[in-house]
Amino acid sequence: MKTEPQAPPSVPSFQSVKEVEANLKSRMEKAVGDLQHEMASIRTGRASLGLLDHIRVDYYGTPTPLNQLANLHVPEPSLITIQPWDVSQIGPIEKAIRSSDLGLNPANDGKMIRLPIPPLTEERRKELVKKLHGAA
């Protein structure tokens, strides 16, 4: 049985400068969107739901995004509240938050999890600057 040589992956061919511009513009917009998403997940001194975007909770053996298990709210600039739809999931949600790289300490009252966002220290500000310069 003969095997035919594989053709190299196709390189987009453009017919005009407008096509090149359109392709480049869409690729740049995707890159900027990805950067904005990454920057939203950086913990600053202000509460943002973007902080919790990458948190996955073990929901009956399946890693599930936190926003699919609970209502998330920011009632104050330094507090995020998490109200799970299934109260039995409070433990796994707390465990997922504690094991994340956010360095946050959740507190629960049996029905809701409160996630206080501490103010930035000078040391943390310097770490953020280094991280953002590395991303740019």
3D structure, described in words:
It is a single chain. By secondary structure, this protein is α+β, with helices and mostly antiparallel strands. It has helices spanning 17-40, 90-99, 122-135; strands at residues 56-59, 62-65, 70-76, 79-84, 107-108, 113-116. It has a four-stranded antiparallel sheet, with no helix packed on it. A hairpin with a 2-residue loop joins β1 (56-59) and β2.
Helix content: 25-40%
- Tally of helical segments: 3
Average pLDDT taken over every residue = 81
Q: What is the general shape?
A: extended
Q: In sequence order, what are the helices and strands, one letter per element?
A: HEEEEHEEH
Strand order of the largest sheet: 3-4-6-5
Q: Report the portion of residues in β strands.
A: 15-25%
Class from helix and strand fractions: alpha+beta
Number of strands: 6
Largest β-sheet summary: 4 strands, antiparallel
Separation of the first and last Cα atoms: 51 Å
Rg over CA atoms: 22 Å
CATH top level class name: Alpha Beta
Count of separate structural domains: 1
